[in-house]
Amino acid sequence: MSLQSKAALVTGSTSGIGLGIARALAGEGAAVMLNGFGDPAQIEKLRSGMASEFGVRVGYAAADMAQPSEIAAAVRRTADELGSLDILVNNAGIQFTAAIEDFPDERWDAVIAINLSAVFHGMKAAIPFMKRKGWGRIVNIASAHGLVASPQKVAYVAAKHGVVGMTKVAAIELANSGVTANAICPGWVRTPLVEKQLHDRAAAQGRALEGVTEDLLAEKQPMRQFSTPDQIGALAVFLCSDAAATITGAPLSIDGGWLAQ
Ligand code: NAD
Question: Which of 14, 17, 43, 199 maximizes ligand 1 atoms within 8 Å of its Cβ, making it the mutation to test the pocket?
Answer without folding.
Answer: 17
